[in-house]
Amino acid sequence: MGPVISAFIQAGGQSARMGQNKALLPIGGRSCVEWVIAAARAVTSEITVVTSDPQLRAFCDERGIALAADHYRDVGPLAGLHVALARCRGEAALVLACDLPFLTGEFLRLLRDSLGEAEAIIPLDAQGHPQPLCALYSVACLPVVTDLIERGERRMGRVLEHLAVRFLSFSEIAHLPGAMDFFWDLDTPEDYQRARQRLRERSSPIRRRAPE
After folding, report:
1. 69-72 long-range contacts, CB within 8 A, separation 24+
2. Model pTM?
3. E strand or H helix that includes residue 97
4. How does pLDDT run across 161-173, given as a tens digit for each residue?
5. What pairs with residue 209 in β-bridges?
6. For a tag site, which of 21, 40, 83, 174 has the least CB within 10 Å?
C-alpha cells in the first residue's frame, strides 16, 4: 500500500497551440479533464483542478470539483506544483496535466505504490523522457520548490535536480494495458484529432476470424 495522496490536475496553461482550452476538449463522450479525473479517482478522492480559466472553473463548480489557483503568476508549471504541495492534505501530491486522456487508474496505482523513500517519483516515457506533469511529489518538496521559485527558477527540470527523485523506467510500466498511450498529450489540433481516432480504435470490438 502506497502513501495517502491528493491529486492536482494542472490546467493553468494558455493552450496557445491548440487555440482553445485543452481541458474542455470533448473526446470519447467526455471532456479531456474528466478522463484525467476518472483515472485519479482510482487512487484518491481528494482531487483538485488548478486553473484560473473562468470557463473551466464554472465547469468544475457545476460538478462539485474542487478548485485552486496559482499563488505565483507567470511561473509556468512550477506554480502548479507549488500550489499542489501547499494544498496537499495527504503525504504526497499527484500532479497531472489536464490533457492526458489515456491515463489509467492501474498506472496511477503503480506510480503511487512506487514512491518509497524518494521525494518524487517521475515516470519516463518509451523514449526515456521524464514526465514531471504525470508524477508524484512528497509534501517535503514544498520548501525546495518555494525557494527555487523565489530565486527566479522557472524550469521543472532544474527543480528535479534538487530533489531525491526516483525515475520510473518505461520498462516498469510497459506491461500495463495502454502503456504506450499514457503520456499522449494534446498540444495541437493534430494531436487532438489523432487522439480521437486512437480512442475510437481502442473502443472498437476486436474482429475475430471465424474458426476454419
Report:
1. 70/12, 72/149
2. 0.90
3. strand 92-97
4. 999 999 999 999 9
5. none
6. 174
